[in-house]
Amino acid sequence: APLIGVLALQGDVREHLAALRAAGAEPVTVRRPAELAAVDGLVVPGGESTTMATLADRFGLLEPLRTAVRGGLPAYGSCAGMILLADRVLDAPAGQRTVGGLDVVVRRNAFGRQVDSFETEVEVEGVAGGPVHAVFIRAPWVEEVGPDVEVLGRVVGGPADGKIVAVRQGRLVATSFHPELTGDSRVHAMFVELVRAARARDLGEDGVGVGA
Ligand code: GLN
């Protein structure tokens, strides 16, 4: 099984570990550069993006995270994790830093006070078997996507109708919502498959490393 790390500085780490296990991965927590170097893929959990970035910096992980993601490490971010994987963030505190890699503009806390937290069904491209129950908690949405970014899901209906809430660019996936809170591991399973495919590709068919 692929070894998938969950960035464990802050946020809903436990729920992601459980969802990854249910999706057939071997999950581990990542707090140090050596732990990051060992994983085949990484989940950046939900939580608070500013706090997570500050802690990553303090733990000496921010630069290693940037280097790893740019070097082709598959990563999946939910909610705050989406913010951390985004290249550009609106409504962030001055000086907010991210890991980046996803060519998107996200708006933090985008859904506004009235719909601070809400739940709805979202069809996610690449996830078979019907819509995903999407839980949004002070969630960001994606306001702009670059040319290489695939939109995987949008809100349908309500005040946020049409807003982009799931995206993929190569080995990076992000959702505004928290599939880890629902007991449905299909989004994690999609990511685990992506990690398997990336690993097979990096190893080459003969199992000898040939680079990304
Ligand atoms: N509002 C949080 C942030 O900006 C994200 C909330 C979440 O992850 N549930 O980081």
UniProtKB/TrEMBL annotation:
Keyword Lyase: yes
Highest taxon above the source species: Bacteria
The keyword Hydrolase is assigned to this record: yes
BP term (GO), one: L-glutamine catabolic process
UniProt-listed CDD domains: GATase1_PB
GO annotation, cellular component aspect: cytosol; glutaminase complex
Record-linked InterPro entries: Class_I_gatase-like, PdxT/SNO, PdxT/SNO_CS
Catalysed reactions listed for this entry: L-glutamine + H2O = L-glutamate + NH4(+); aldehydo-D-ribose 5-phosphate + D-glyceraldehyde 3-phosphate + L-glutamine = pyridoxal 5'-phosphate + L-glutamate + phosphate + 3 H2O + H(+)
GO MF, one example: transferase activity
Residues reported to bind L-glutamine: 47-49, 108, 137-138
EC number assigned by the record: 4.3.3.6, 3.5.1.2
Keywords per UniProt: Glutamine amidotransferase, Hydrolase, Lyase, Pyridoxal phosphate, Transferase
Family membership noted in the UniProt record: Belongs to the glutaminase PdxT/SNO family.
Known function: Catalyzes the hydrolysis of glutamine to glutamate and ammonia as part of the biosynthesis of pyridoxal 5'-phosphate. The resulting ammonia molecule is channeled to the active site of PdxS.
Quaternary state and interactors: In the presence of PdxS, forms a dodecamer of heterodimers. Only shows activity in the heterodimer.
Protein name from the UniProt record: Pyridoxal 5'-phosphate synthase subunit PdxT
Name of the gene this protein is made from: pdxT
